[in-house]
Amino acid sequence: MAEFNLAVHYRARTGKSYRNELARKDMVPGVVYGKAVGSIPIELEHKPLKHIMGQNAVIDLTILGPGQGETRQLKVLVKDYQLDPIKRVYRNIDFHQISLDNAIQVGVPVELTGHVAGGVLQHGLREIHVSCLPGDIPHSIIVSLDGMNVGDTITVQDLHLPEKVTMLTEPDVLVATVVAQRAEEAAPTVAEDAGAAGAGAAAKQTEGENA
Questions:
Q1: Left, alpha or beta for 157 (phi > 0: left; psi -120 to 50: alpha)?
Q2: DSSP string across 185-205
Q3: Sheet holding 166-167, edge to edge
Q4: Pairing mode, strands 174-179 and 153-155
C-alpha cells in the first residue's frame, strides 16, 4: 500500500470568485470530511495531486492553519474529485479521514494482463469494491488473459484477493469474456455475382453503341 505526505492550507474563503482566484494560482479547493473532524475546507497546490491520484494511497495530510494557527495531522484517502475534461486539471477534491485500525470500503481497479489465444476480448467490470484495513488496500487486482479462447469468461468469483481483503462486488459480475471475430463483410451470393456480371456486360455494350 502506497503512502504519501501532503501539506495543505486551511481555506478561510469560499465562493466562485475565490475558486477562480485559486485556479489562476494553480491551486485547488477541497474539503476534508470525517466523524472526528466534521468538515474542514482546505486549499492545496495542483502539482502534488498528479502523483497521488489513482493510487488508492493512504495520505498523511498536514493541514496548516491560517497565519501561525494550529497545524493538524490526519490520515486520509481521496474520496471524490472534479477534473476539467479539457484542461485536465483538478477543480475540486474531497478527502475522507480514516483510522488505520478500522476497515473501510474502497474501489480497486482490475488490471488485465497477457493475451487471449483467439477471438476478441470484451471488457466487463473495470473496478471492484472491497473491504479491508487502509494499510491492506491492494493497488490493483491482476487478471491474466493468457490461454483464453472464444467462449471463455472471467467473473468476479474467479478473482484472487489478498488474504486480508474481503470482496463486496457480486460474484457473478462479468470481468472479461472472449467472443468470436465478426466477419467484416459477408461473402457475395451467387445471385449477386451474376447480377454484377450482367451489369458489367450491359455497360460495355452501351459504351460500344456510343463509340
A1: alpha
A2: SPPPPHHHHHHHHHHHHHHHH
A3: 141-144, 104-113, 127-132, 166-167
A4: antiparallel
Going along the chain from its start, the domains and CATH numbers come out as: 3-97 (2.40.240.10), 104-179 (2.170.120.20)
Three-state DSSP class for residue 70: coil
pLDDT tens figures, 30-48: 999 998 899 999 999 999 8
Residue stretches of the chain with pLDDT short of 50: 185-187, 189-197, 199-211
Q: Report yes or no: 136 and 165 within 8 Å, Cβ to Cβ.
A: yes
Q: What pLDDT, on a 0 to 100 scale, did the predictor assign at position 204?
A: 46
Rounded Cα distance, 110 and 128, in Å: 7
Q: Which residues pair with 162 in a beta bridge?
A: none
Closest C-alpha among 32, 50, 48, 30 to residue 40: 32
**pLDDT recorded at residue 181:** 85
Q: Which three cell numbers stand for residue 33?
A: 470530511
> Are the C-beta atoms of 127 and 159 separated by less than 8 Å?
no
Give the span between the Cα atoms of 82 and 88, in whole angstroms. 10
Task: At 206, list the grid cell.
Answer: 452501351
